[in-house]
Structure formats: C-alpha cells, structure tokens
Amino acid sequence: MSNSDPSIFELGESEALKRAIAHFKPGSHTLIPSGDDAAVIRSGGRYVVTTDTMVQDRDFLLKFSSPENLGYKAVATNLSDVVAMGAKPTSLVVALVVPKTTSVSFLENFARGLQSGIDELFPGCEVVGGDLASGTEIVIAVTAHGELDQEPVLRSGAKVGDLVVVAGTLGKAAAGLSLLLAPDHTLAASYPELVEVQLAPKPPLALGLELAGIANSMLDLSDGLSTDAARIAKASDVSIRLNSSALIGYEAVLELAAQSMTARGFEAAERDWVLHGGEDHSFLATVPAGTLLPKGCKVIGEVVSKSAEPVYLDDTPLIAKGWDSISS
Amino acid sequence: MSNSDPSIFELGESEALKRAIAHFKPGSHTLIPSGDDAAVIRSGGRYVVTTDTMVQDRDFLLKFSSPENLGYKAVATNLSDVVAMGAKPTSLVVALVVPKTTSVSFLENFARGLQSGIDELFPGCEVVGGDLASGTEIVIAVTAHGELDQEPVLRSGAKVGDLVVVAGTLGKAAAGLSLLLAPDHTLAASYPELVEVQLAPKPPLALGLELAGIANSMLDLSDGLSTDAARIAKASDVSIRLNSSALIGYEAVLELAAQSMTARGFEAAERDWVLHGGEDHSFLATVPAGTLLPKGCKVIGEVVSKSAEPVYLDDTPLIAKGWDSISS
C-alpha cells in the first residue's frame, strides 16, 4: 500500500473518519449533527425509520462494485423504502464494518458515493451519524428516516378495482447482475446502462412521492415483481392480475441483452428478469381507477377479488420466485 | 444440529424471523410497527438518533457472551447514548448479520436479550424494525431513537466552576473483561457481578435522564473516564480536574478482584480500571455548582479554566488511554 493511500489502521480511525465525513453536506432537517452521542433531527410529529444491510460476497462483490457504487446503492435502497411509505427522506445513519487494512481512499470514496446518491436522488437529505468498526468482511448497515406529510401508505391498503402501477425500471437490475456474473466479460461491457442499475440503482424518488400521494398501497420493488406483488395481495387480502401486454415495454429494452447472453450459451430470458428480478428499487403501487397518474408511471394490472393465488399474469397464476441477490 | 434447534438456513429466514419477533413487546411510541417498508414513530417535533455496532471477535467473544447478553448489551450501549443527549428512548432498529448455520434458538435468545434489556433499562421503548442478513461473522448494528422534552445536552456545554458528576459504575466493565480474559477461569467465576457489567451493562437510564435535566454537558462513558472526560474538556474549551479521593469508592469495590489477579501473576490495578476502563456506559456530566443532585450521582471533580492538558487527576495531567474492548 502506498503512502499516498494509507490504510485506516495506518492513518488512525479518527483521522480516517474525518476525511470521510468531509464529503458530507449539511441537510435541512438536522438540528445537531453527528459528533455528539446522537444527532438531533427535526420532525413534524411523526417520522418513518427503516434499515437495510449489505454484506460483502452476499449482496455485493468488490470485483464489480466500486466504493462509490456501494455508498450510492446503500442510499438508494434505504431511501426507496422511506418513499414507499409516503415519507420524505430526511436523514441517514451509516454503520460500516471494514477490515483494518482497508484504504482510507475506500472510505472516502464510499462517503462520496453516499453523498452523490443523496445529491442525485433526494437532495437535502443528510448523513447525520455513523459508526466505523473493524471486521473480516465489509458490512454496510444503513438506517434511514423520513418525515410524513400524509398518512403512511401501507402494503395492506389495496382495494379491488385499483390499478396496479409501476414507477421506475423493471428487470434492469437483474439483467445487469446476470451480465456481470456471466464468465464472458464482454457482455457486461456491452450493456453499461443495465449494469449501472444493478450497481447504483436510481429509484425515481420524487415520482415515488407523487405516486404515494394518490396510492392506496405501495412498496419498493426490492425482491422482484412476482414476490412484491404477492406481498401487497396477501397484506390487502386481494389478488393482483398483471397484464402481460403491459410488460412488453419493460421486456423490449432487455431483449438484446438476453439474446446476447443466450447466443453465448448462457441462460437468460427478459421476461424472467421483468417478472422475478429484484433490486430495481422502483415503486409498485395500487391507485383507485380513474386517478390521474403522474407522468412516468405505468399501469401494469389491476386489483381483483381474492382468488386461489395472490398474483396472476393474465389468467395464469404467477408463482413468486424469491430474489436472493448474488448469493442465490 | 438437532431437529429441535434448526439453523436459520434449515427453517428459512422468514419463519426464523417470525419466531424472533414474537419476543418483542409493543411500545408506546409506534404508530406503524415493523413489517412494511418502514416503521412510523410518533415524535414531539424533534428526535435523536444514534447508532452503534458490535462485531464478533472484536467487540465480543461467543465463548463469553450468550446471545441474551449480546441483545441486552446492544440495547444498553445504544440507549445510554440516547439518554446522554437528554432524550427518552423510544425505539430501536436492529441489523443483524449471522452465518446461515446459526441456530434459530440463537436468534430467539438474542431477541429475548433485546427485550429484557428494554424491560429492565427503559420499559416502553420498542424494537420497531430490523434486517437479518448472512455473513461469515456476527455483526450487530443497532440504531436507537429518543424524544427530547428538553434542550439536548451536548459535550460542549461544560462551564468553568461546574461539578463533574458520574451516575453508574466506573471500572467494573473493564475489571470484568480482565477477569474473563485471564487464562485462569476461576477468576471470572469468583466475581460474577463484575463479569455481568462487562457482558450485560445496566446503565442507570432513569437516573441519567434526571441528571440530563440539570447538566450543562454530558456523555455516556463508553471509552473510559480519562478519554471521555477529555472529550468534554476539548469540546467545551475547558479543563477538568478529577479528585483522586472521590474515586476511592469506585476503586474499593474492585480491589479484591485486582488482588486476586495479581496473586495469580496477571497484571491488574483497580485504579487503571476506574480511570481508563470503558464500556460501563455510565454517565459523565457537568452541572452548575450548588445544584441539588439526584440520589445516586457522585461528584468526582470540577471544571476549571483551560490549561495545558484537558484532564488532571488532582494536579497531575491524566493522559487518556484509548479503550479498544477485546481487540486491544
């Protein structure tokens, strides 16, 4: 390791932390920032809280994800959960476990990724605290907070007759992961946009908040359409009927990538990515029929009375396949 | 592994989680509990947030700490940070990384430990969410929230003339760790109360809140008196003068344990434990002279004008020794 990029161990934890923290910008909701026993956040009387963990070699591989990617993705996955409740993201705390030999530049670039995720996805949100610990593998545990200006939007609110609506990409993150994992490295290089959605997803948070304003139920698509639609159906005691014709557009943008993979002998199907692929962190909502939808939302089905299965694709039961990231 | 205690992998993560969550009691501040994208918490307009991480073989050893201990300690360390700000603990989210081979009973006992920590230390607080992930070593990352009914008490508020006050144990956690780490296992068995403070500390949270109500500055003693007193002194631009005679009582209860250790050839000094030992998670505060102190608080020094060193023991500079738990 060169002197110009010392390890956290060489530089000392508190100096390394200072360099990382220098990349964070103050937000608009913090009364007392990080540095004392706890941060103090302004709230309008109610706030939401959610936590999500990423573990090295389970949820990400260092050969694919840069430290910036990891920071960015940690922001995206947590803020999409906040927005899926109908809340505006206000603050994050970040617990990071890294080996002591980790370079200070890794820590700084991770912090840069956190801040650029905030800047691009929801400016004004802020990293208000964190904890740096040492371990054998990297663990990133983020807790995010948001403030509610409306009633929270739950999974259990879907009503028969609602339209099923998506905001954001569908299947791109899974396609990106398949491309990355293929032994032929030219594949990932050929579809950088899909790889980018896997490594640093960009959930449309502002659009998600608009959608939350009119939705009866909503969640963020972390585990795939089939799994997450079933969650809404079960929680709401209804069934969901997806229209295959409405999914053609999502499939079309993945078709070339799937063809490139199968041409090289790898298993790939654009429909599987769209139906079962996770980690887009897009929004799935149900809204009353006749509601004016914000631009960028797409109707992909409807809520029907509860029948034998929670989710149907046209008239066929759509069995949920669990999404397990790279550890599957 | 017997069938009566399956692993998380054997039982399935969602069923294992259900069994763990069954040990949690609802609290009084939660509007929407765990189970959706995020929990919703009531707040009086401001809340505090803090996070703390425990890593296997760095912050705890499974040969000493039971899963109940780990849950209990995770609650104690985080709630003491909340209280040290002058806030009432309301909620916790828990990110837990464990190997997939971990038994479901470990998970359940960890959850029991979290709940008994809450029950004993601050009833009404609640686990409102979490995340279970798999990894090679155990990582426990807790984020805790509290509500402020008063102005936050910062490290930077100490005033010349303030009395320096402690609420809680001093040195017992460090003594307990020394006893545990000694190769002679009869030592730890002889001083169960000290070992208990190390494995499952019981910070006096209600007393801490009373103290916060009158304190100019305050923090929780996680890294040792010498280190934490220096933090207040530096943040407040003052010096702190500790009275050795006021520490005699803390030393006295550790004297026998230190003698037992030295008699068996191990290095141990009760004064070192009191001055430099961390993890008691007691409270160190400064209060205006003449203030009526709540019962259970002890004056151990005073705040003086800034001089060459941040902390003095009587007239001698007290150099902070960093506390690094078992990884030191």
Give a verbal description of the structure.
2 copies of one chain form a homodimer. Chain A has 328 residues and is α+β, with helices and mostly antiparallel strands. Chain A folds into 2 domains: 141 residues, PurM-like, N-terminal domain (60s Ribosomal Protein L30, Chain: A), CATH 3.30.1330; 173 residues, Alpha-Beta Complex (Phosphoribosyl-aminoimidazole Synthetase, Chain A, domain 2). Chain A has 11 helices and 13 strands. At the A-B interface, strand 2, strand 3, helix 3, strand 4 and strand 5 of A face strand 2, strand 3, helix 3, strand 4 and strand 5 of B.
> How many domains is the backbone of chain A divided into?
2
How far is the N terminus from the C terminus of chain A? 34 Å
User: Mean pLDDT of chain A, as a whole number?
Assistant: 94
- The largest beta-sheet of chain A arranges its strands as 8-10-7-11-9-12-13
Quaternary structure annotation: homodimer
Sheet-strand content of chain A, in percent, reads 15-25%
Determine the most extensive contact between two protein chains.
A-B, 58 and 58 residues
Structural class of chain A: alpha+beta
Question: What topology emerges from the helices and strands here?
Answer:
The structure is a homodimer of 328-residue chains.
Chain A: H1 8-11, H2 13-21, E1 30-32, E2 39-42, E3 46-55, H3 67-84, E4 87-98, H4 104-121, E5 126-134, E6 139-148, E7 163-167, H5 172-181, H6 186-190, H7 192-199, H8 205-212, E8 217-221, H9 225-236, E9 239-242, H10 248-263, H11 270-276, E10 282-287, E11 297-304, E12 311-313, E13 316-317
Parallel strand pairs in A: 4-5, 9-12
Antiparallel strand pairs in A: 1-2, 3-6, 4-6, 7-10, 7-11, 8-10, 9-11, 12-13
Helix pairs in contact in A: 2-4, 3-4, 3-8, 5-7, 5-11, 10-11
